[in-house]
Structure to design on (368 residues):
């Protein structure tokens, strides 16, 4: 029985607790700044809850002493505090952040760490990189690597064609911050919400546009080895134009608190969502120009008798799978671990990674 600290009691953090404790192999310490957010965890078997301000790495490290790992599900702006606390507590560290600047600090913290630091373990960045790397290894020479991911409502009914399915702070951040890409063999930064493209999958029309952070460390890994590499977020048509008007024309990119308040009070959340993963790699294989594609859809479903959204399942399932592999000794036990260091077959064979298996029937219980 390993004790794991989960930082953040939101939608993803609570799902991580549910998955880990239900496995019977982990005890959970869940930490959040809000006592209200922790109420549902009080008196739960296998779970202890701690309310404290997450603003001091030293203070947090004291409460993390003795834990096997720290799973950071807090907002991206708390990443560096939690990562430093994990290092001080000599615990393994995993997070979900898409924030590029924070991830660079985590990478620096891992240089002389005695434990493993595995940032960006969610859906994108995270699983999308694992899936892409599995295809990349099939090629002798790379031309184009395109990663596309979307967490979408199954039944959109507003002008944005969107419902709030995960962190509002995370959505705004990825729509505002610069994006990494490789174009013509050159590593560069591109603006978010630009280079919008249209495509269809299974008869449904989508658009995809630049967003920040989805590539993880792939740009650094593939620099000098690929002609073009980019990541785009999938939405229904029309979404990007409205968001650009809000962020640019109304200047809400510089008033993120206002935009967050608008979105959370005007755009409903939903559990009826679908996650789309779409990776295309082209290049030379045995002297021939070839292309390979990985496509997957994950739907909301019942887990342990409770309906979880697709973004909850894929994000929490991914970080739990990496934690499980770390606990089993299948990953290095110290230093920085990239998502591309995690083999796709081993990930999908993991009890938590199996949430990415194709589903014939949405809302099927995981125990069935």
């Amino acid at each position: 029985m390993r004790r794991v600290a989960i930082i953040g009691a939101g939608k993803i953090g609570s799902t991580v607790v549910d998955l880990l404790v239900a496995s019977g192999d982990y005890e959970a310490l869940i930490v959040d700044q809000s006592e209200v957010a922790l109420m549902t965890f009080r008196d739960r078997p296998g779970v202890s809850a701690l309310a404290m301000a997450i603003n001091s790495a030293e203070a947090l490290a004291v409460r993390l002493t003795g834990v096997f790992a720290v799973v950071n599900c807090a907002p991206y702006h708390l990443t560096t505090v939690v990562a430093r606390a994990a290092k001080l507590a000599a615990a393994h560290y995993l997070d979900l952040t898409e924030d590029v600047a924070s991830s660079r600090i985590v990478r620096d913290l891992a240089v002389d760490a005695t434990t493993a630091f595995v940032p960006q373990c969610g859906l994108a960045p995270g699983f999308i990189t694992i899936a892409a790397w599995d295809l990349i290894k099939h090629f002798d020479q790379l031309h184009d690597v395109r990663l596309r991911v979307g967490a979408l409502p199954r039944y959109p009914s507003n002008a944005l064609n969107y419902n709030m399915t995960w962190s509002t702070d995370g959505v705004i951040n990825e729509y505002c911050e610069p994006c990494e890409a490789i174009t013509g063999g050159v590593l560069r930064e591109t603006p978010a919400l630009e280079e919008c493209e249209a495509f269809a999958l299974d008869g449904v029309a989508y658009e995809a546009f630049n967003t920040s952070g989805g590539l993880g460390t792939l740009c650094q890994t593939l620099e000098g080895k690929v002609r073009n590499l980019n990541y785009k977020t999938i939405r229904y048509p029309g979404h990007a134009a409205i968001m650009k008007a809000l962020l640019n024309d109304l200047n809400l990119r510089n008033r993120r608190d206002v935009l967050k308040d608008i979105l959370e009070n005007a755009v409903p959340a939903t559990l009826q969502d679908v996650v789309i993963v779409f990776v295309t790699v082209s290049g030379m294989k045995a002297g021939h120009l070839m292309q390979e594609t990985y496509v997957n859809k994950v739907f909301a479903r019942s887990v342990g008798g409770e309906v979880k959204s697709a973004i909850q399942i894929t994000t929490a399932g991914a970080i739990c799978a990496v934690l499980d592999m770390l606990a089993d000794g299948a990953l290095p036990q110290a230093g920085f671990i990239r998502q591309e260091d995690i083999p796709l077959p081993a990930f999908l064979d993991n009890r938590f990674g199996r949430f990415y298996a194709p589903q014939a029937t949405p809302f099927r219980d995981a125990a069935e």
About this structure: The longest helix spans residues 310-327.
